[in-house]
């Protein structure tokens, strides 16, 4: 298939990265994670306008139909390899964009890792122990500046995902099993990098992330456009 061949060729040509590369003169890499229905894409798109920032999605939407669907139907180790490879293509894109302005990831490596480990374990007690190397950030990927895992009440998350009508098989499993959801979030916790943000609506999440970025001097204070009280009042959980 020409689309798969194009994807594999792009992966083979990805340059070598390091998590220890100096970041002087580069804008921050901000990663948004969370289960489907927590508002990642909405929050990311709003932040790109309000910071402003560039948006990087993994996998890249151009591989969504022709490539992702083919890999999804293959044995799990092969389908996971597709997501891993997509993370490195995203890194190449982000490293170029961060020379101009901040970069927001709508999912990145953490999502691949948490879903793979959480699905295999089934519940948190069966995960690798705290401190295991599997939770460490890959040495050949640029280290993000910030990582945020978005959370909402499970009933809200499920209704949002159902209204969207495009729940993936793994998301149906997450909706059905509280133990699996806990396992996935436990992986994020054990990566010892992500902050958890529980807000009922996207305007509140956007404002909280802007506050976080300003408080760590990752962006200039007062430059980002926060959601107004009118915008906050107008948005319901789902």
Please give a structural write-up:
It is a single chain. The protein is globular and about 50 Å long. The chain is built from ten helices and five strands. It starts with a helix and ends with a helix. Helix content is 50%, strand content 10%. It has helices at 2-12, 40-50, 64-72, 76-97, 109-121, 154-164, 169-176, 178-190, 202-215, 229-234; strands at 29-33, 54-57, 103-106, 146-151, 195-198. Strands 2-3-1-4-5 form a five-stranded parallel β-sheet, with helices on both faces. The chain has 238 residues and is α/β, with parallel strands linked by helices.
pLDDT below 50 for ≥5 consecutive residues: which ranges?
none
Trace the largest sheet across and list its strands. 2-3-1-4-5
The span between the termini is: 39 Å
Cα-atom radius of gyration? 18 Å
Q: What's the shape?
A: globular
- Total number of strands: 5
Q: How many helices? A: 10
Strand content: 5-15%
Main sheet characteristics: 5 strands, parallel
Write down the secondary-structure element order. HEHEHHEHEHHHEHH
- Helix fraction? 40-55%
Q: Structural class of the helix and strand makeup?
A: alpha/beta
What characteristics describe this protein?
single chain, 5-stranded parallel sheet, 238 residues, globular, alpha/beta, 10 helices
How is this fold's topology laid out?
Elements: H1 2-12, E1 29-33, H2 40-50, E2 54-57, H3 64-72, H4 76-97, E3 103-106, H5 109-121, E4 146-151, H6 154-164, H7 169-176, H8 178-190, E5 195-198, H9 202-215, H10 229-234
Parallel strand pairs: 1-3, 1-4, 2-3, 4-5
Helix pairs in contact: 2-9, 5-8, 7-8
């Amino acid at each position: 298939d020409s689309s798969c061949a194009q994807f594999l060729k792009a992966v083979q040509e990805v340059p070598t990265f390091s998590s220890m590369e100096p970041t002087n003169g580069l804008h921050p890499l901000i990663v948004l994670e969370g289960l489907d229905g927590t508002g990642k894409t909405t929050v990311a798109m709003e932040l790109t306008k309000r910071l402003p920032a560039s948006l990087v999605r993994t996998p890249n939407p151009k591989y969504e139909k022709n490539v992702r669907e083919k890999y999804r139907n293959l044995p799990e180790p092969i389908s996971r390899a597709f997501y891993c490879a997509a993370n490195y293509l995203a890194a190449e894109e982000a490293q170029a964009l961060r020379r101009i302005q901040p970069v927001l990831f709508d999912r990145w490596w953490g999502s691949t890792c948490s879903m793979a480990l959480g699905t295999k374990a089934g519940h948190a007690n069966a995960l690798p122990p705290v401190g295991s190397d599997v939770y460490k950030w890959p040495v050949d990927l640029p280290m993000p500046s910030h990582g945020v895992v978005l959370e909402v009440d499970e009933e809200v998350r499920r209704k949002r995902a159902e209204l969207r009508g495009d729940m993936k098989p793994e998301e149906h499993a997450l909706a059905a099993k509280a133990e699996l959801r806990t396992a996935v979030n436990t992986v994020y916790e054990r990566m010892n990098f992500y902050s958890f943000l529980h807000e009922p609506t996207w305007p509140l999440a956007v404002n909280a992330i802007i506050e976080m970025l300003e408080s760590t001097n990752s962006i200039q204070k007062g430059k980002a456009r926060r959601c107004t009280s009118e915008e906050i009042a107008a948005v319901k959980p789902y």
